Amino acid sequence: MVQLKKDELRNFMNVVKKYAKVRKSLTFVGNVKVNRFYKAKKKELTPKLVGDIMKLLHIPIHEVIDFVEDDYADKFVSIMRANNH
Prior knowledge:
This protein is mainly α. The protein is built from 5 helices and no strands.
């Protein structure tokens, strides 16, 4: 589970929505992933799902790092880099 700051979850989702609007030309698979991401919210946010969405929408790490728990930030960056983000 991605360790997001609970009080920042809404802001994190807003960043994803902002980039989804900017990148309107998503494929069907991309739309399915984004919709799955919105529905998952807190309970199913895995590092892989977050990484896939960030890669799909070209969201830079610096846009979302503030929403990650401080003690998890280094691991999060490693996971995102390993995911070719």
